[in-house]
Amino acid sequence: MAHPAINGTVTYLQSSEIIGPTVVDVASMITPRTIIDSTRSPEAGVETFRREASSTANVFLLPGIYALGMGWLLNNFRKNKAPNLAIDNGSIDALKTAWNNSGNVDDYAKNIIENLRGAVGTEEARALPRDKTGKLSEDLAKAIKEKSLHKLKAVEEDAIKALGAEKSITLHGTGTNMSTLFKNAAKMHENVFNKFGHEALHDVIEGMKNLNVQKTWLGLGIAAGIALGIQYTNRYLTKLKTGTDAFVGLPHYDELKDKSESENAPEDKKKNGIGLFAGKVAASILMAYMVGASISETKHPIKAFKIFGNIPELYKKLEFKGKIPTMNQLKVLIGTTFVGRYFAATDGNELRESTFRDTLTYLNLLIIGGLISSGTAFALALKNKLNPSLLFNGPKLEKEGFWGNISTILNKMSQKSMAEIEVLKEADTTKNILKGIHNKSYITGIVSSCLALGLVTPWLNKHITNKLVNKKEEQPQNSNTDGHKSVSTTQTGNFNRNMKVVQSVLGDFGSSPGDGVKRAVTKEFVYSQFFAS
Q: Which pTM value belongs to this model?
């Protein structure tokens, strides 16, 4: 699985800021879930597609645009406009330090290259070899002066080869990756350092950092607000088309569409009930705990919820670092989206399905997906008698117990990129095996998500709902005073429609009370012969 075409595809999907996550989500979530839910009813398929596609766009693609848009809007109310760049405050400070220690773009590039550090394997920090810094500094300075993205990319590739690291990079103590670092260095020089003198630079930098804080909260606020309302809008569009706001996943949904709103049985709607509201609150609290625990890296409930009250610390974890959301931002926005789905649910079946589906999805994002991918890489490395550290950056796994090792894998270790594997000082045959393992572990993660979350989860939801609803309808109802059992909502709907057919055949005849009795008896007889099971 180390074919150049596969290597290129996997590398592109992993490195692409927008297309990669979108393609993976469409392939593993949106498409299979839409197909399975379409077997319930056309409306269920359409609603699922709208739900998943709109959430993907709002969570993965648009938050950075919201933030930049808010930065532009805020600048219109500022006396001294600050450059509205997609660069986080830590990177701004690190690049300002590099510029302050230099007098021109050549020294600026030299300071960046000489202070660049990268984590390689189990090493926490490694500097570029001294014999490589001179050429790299010159090339970086030339790329910045000429504003050439092509030359900037070439410097990035050469720096990765020389350092052996691409993802776990630091400059003056600020974490980043190689591509983002050089792009930010060029943007800061073009829009800030080259435009403002040293006397004005301090105020400009402070203005940029203040603008970052404001546009981060506003951008995330817009994305979170939309996330909460997406499913309400989705349900409203379905109701406009069908005339009912009943859950589209109900097995007798087609019959509910034929009724007026007043005819829908209470058990089909179950709206505004205390029990349903309590279930929504409970599911939301669980999701809030999962979000807080994941971004604060703790299992303790109090500490998990405490992060939401520590605004400065929360900002550090949620600040925009580029045009696409960070993992912590994704955790918050995805969790908010799920809470919106919980509160939009119109009955217990929909709430149960959403809680089951979305909780598993969140766990896959945080734990399951990473464990499957990393576990596959570990297992295949051992199977091929290779040291797993050749595939990972981070500390060695010590004897910390099962959960301790899982925490280390998830929070402190990361799989090497294809470029980092390429520059390993290993034989070509070994590197080809490592590339194959890298591809297999990545594809295994996608396939497992597709099977577990895209196929099995919606199938289980459909099966459980059908079984619960049908079982309830099959149960005998309370006997009436004549000793006859009342029929279910579905049976009543079928009887009314079939009796209309009988009436169209027999017509209305007779006007006397006796004729009415004979007419009713005759219709009941025809119905029993041709329609009753």
A: 0.81
